[in-house]
Specification:
InterPro entries: AB_hydrolase_fold (IPR029058), DUF308_memb (IPR005325), Lipase_secreted (IPR005152). By secondary structure, this protein is an alpha/beta fold. The protein is built from 21 helices and 10 strands. The longest helix has 35 residues.
Length: 605
């Protein structure tokens, strides 16, 4: 249909109208390809992404200008086309745009475009096929725009899926239109009767219906991911005045959530020493077997939990399944042995942060102070005899606690230390984050901790611009949050991208701090170290290097490598490592001497 009014008078539009059909087809294909590139490579360098998004906006404006326009649409379509092109040029020309600014611009344009589509569907003299197609595409744009603007943590992945997906849909629709126009022109040249409306025009409506269905499904599926985070309650808020020395109990209350039968538990708030050397508050749990006889004291397993997250609401004691989230899967077996469990949340999980993730000394202090504070609960009847256990992040904390116990908390009688797949070498873990399964998530926690605590460690200094918002968003999610699925999508969406770091993390202040927190090689108490042979998070090769240094320091060590076991599998209730650790711990509580040498044993699957 001829273009009239303002639309027909626009010089740019008249120029675009005269483009050959093959150029319009090429532009449609370019739209599909560009959309796919943005979706596949969402966190490429920010300057390149801005070029892709800006180019996509210009392309969208051109395709909109060259598309079929019905009576009454001209003014709407002209303004939108010019808007897409102008803002696309703006994004291309402004190198300092932030990712959030690009997301907002994209979201606003998608909303306006969607609203225009819905409005066009209501115009008079429109066929039902056009009304349905315009309304469906309009709703698709509105949903995409809302997702880009109000997603709880706008990341490049969201922008890529939203805008890249819309470019793909736009290109497909225009290819369909070009194909339909070509067929119609050939029919006219042959003098054949014109195809019926359903045959020649309902195809566009069908594509529109498929696109809006997929978009609605995407919005519905992701809606629960923005909900359900644990809420930190008042128990974790430290009073204005707390004891001036670490290891003191601030408050305790009975705890029943997910506590095994025939056990009694308390939630505790206590004092400990922070990274800056000042007294801070931390939280934790104390669990003891039921039915202690008068005067009987339970030996203590000082449990240091594996990674749960960086944010305050990631404390294991806050979760619906606290012991599962803490990685203490064999809790029933431990209690059945007649041992009590003291489990710190660490500073910053539950209590005010920041959480010193992978910080050796602060984690050790929180662990030892939890045991000291728990002994103030008279009903718990805890012995001073303690064996420190820990897995992954907690494995490193256990190693540090064992090394510092004698000087920091001499009243805690540490008989031995058992570390399971400990994160003993933070530098190696961070440096090889791309080779580690889910490494991006753990890197987000580590970098959030170090950058929050040390002002000379910053995102711009170490992290590629395109990855900065992704990493910050990841650090706000716990491993047990429903929204962790978004982090999984981020990991998948960035798997083909360049490295996370713009600067080698082993250099500068970050490298210095990481090396400072490498696990000690001389502990004093005997050490049991269990490692999965198929561990993809803390690789056995990395652990072997740590063990080599430990043995060189003449530390009493029993190192067992369990063939075929993954990172978390070693802690399964019926894992051979759990059985070995329990037997080894029994011997330590019984006063039996540990192996005086450094022994290494390979355990077959």
């Amino acid at each position: 249909m001829a273009r009239t009014g303002i639309w027909g008078k626009l010089a740019l539009v008249r120029l675009l109208e005269r483009m050959p059909a093959w150029v319009r087809i090429a532009l449609s294909i370019a739209s599909i390809v560009l959309g796919a590139v943005i979706v596949i490579r969402p966190t490429t360098a920010l300057d390149v992404l801005a070029l892709l998004l800006g180019g996509g906006m210009v392309l969208t404006g051109i395709l909109s200008a060259t598309g079929r326009v019905d009576e009454g649409e001209g003014r709407w379509r002209g303004v939108l086309s010019i808007g897409w092109i102008v803002l696309g040029v703006f994004v291309l020309a402004w190198p300092g745009l932030t990712v959030r600014a690009v997301a907002i611009i994209t979201g606003v344009l998608l909303l306006v475009n969607g609203a225009a589509g819905v409005g066009t569907a209501l115009l008079k003299d429109r066929g039902w096929d056009d009304r349905i197609a315009d309304a469906a595409f309009g709703v698709t744009g509105l949903i995409f725009g809302v997702l880009a603007l109000v997603w709880p943590d706008i990341t490049l992945l969201v922008v890529a899926v939203v805008f890249g997906g819309s470019l793909i849909i736009r290109g497909i629709v225009d290819l369909w239109g070009a194909w339909a126009r070509t067929r119609r022109r050939r029919r006219e040249e042959k003098g054949a009767p014109e195809a019926s409306v359903p045959k020649r025009r309902w195809g566009r409506a069908a594509i529109a219906i498929v696109s809006v269905t997929a978009t609605v499904a995407f919005a519905l599926v992701t809606a629960p991911l923005r909900e359900g985070s644990t809420v930190v309650d008042d128990f974790y808020a430290a009073p204005r005045s707390i004891p001036h020395e670490p290891g003191r109990l601030i408050r305790a209350e009975p705890f029943t959530r997910d506590v095994p039968d025939k056990a009694v538990a308390w939630r505790i708030l206590y004092t400990t020493t922070g990274v800056d050397g000042r007294v801070r508050a931390a939280s934790g749990l104390v669990v003891v077997p039921e039915g202690a006889k008068p005067g009987e004291r339970w030996p203590v397993i000082d449990w240091n939990h594996s990674t749960t997250g960086f944010a305050e609401h990631c404390a294991p004691s806050l979760q619906a399944r606290p012991f599962w989230s803490a990685g203490l899967y064999p809790i029933k077996k431990v209690l059945k042995e007649g041992w009590a469990i003291v489990m710190t949340d660490y500073i910053g999980l539950g209590t005010a942060g920041p959480h010193p993730y992978l910080f050796g000394e602060a984690s050790a202090y929180a662990s030892l102070d939890a045991v000291r504070a728990a002994r103030e609960i008279g009903e718990a009847q805890l012995s001073s005899s303690t064996v420190i256990w820990g897995h992954s992040q907690g494995g490193a904390a256990a190693l540090w606690a064992g090394a510092l116990a004698r000087s920091y908390a001499p009243e805690v009688w540490v008989r031995a230390v058992a570390a399971f797949a400990p994160a003993s070498d933070p530098t190696a873990l961070v440096d090889h984050v791309g080779d580690v399964q889910g490494g991006l998530v753990f890197a987000s926690y580590a970098f959030a901790a170090f950058s929050n605590i040390y002002p000379d460690i910053t995102y711009p200094r170490y992290i590629r611009p395109g990855m900065q918002p992704v990493l910050k968003a990841m650090s706000e999610r716990c491993l047990t949050d429903p929204s962790m699925a978004l982090s999984v999508l981020d990991v998948l969406g960035t798997s083909a991208d360049p490295d996370l770091f713009s600067t080698n993390p082993a250099y500068g202040p970050l490298g210095t701090r990481l090396r400072e927190n490498s696990s000690p090689t001389s502990l004093g108490p005997p050490l049991f170290l269990g490692q999965g042979g198929s561990d993809s998070i803390v690789p056995q090769t990395m652990q072997d290097g740590y063990v080599k240094r430990v043995c060189a320091d003449a530390q009493r060590l029993e190192y067992r490598r369990y063939a075929g076991y993954e990172h978390a599998q070693v802690m399964d209730t019926y894992s051979p490592m759990v059985a070995d650790a329990i037997a080894w711990t029994h011997a330590r509580f019984e006063g039996e001497s540990a192996n005086a040498e450094c022994s290494i044993t390979d355990v077959p699957r």
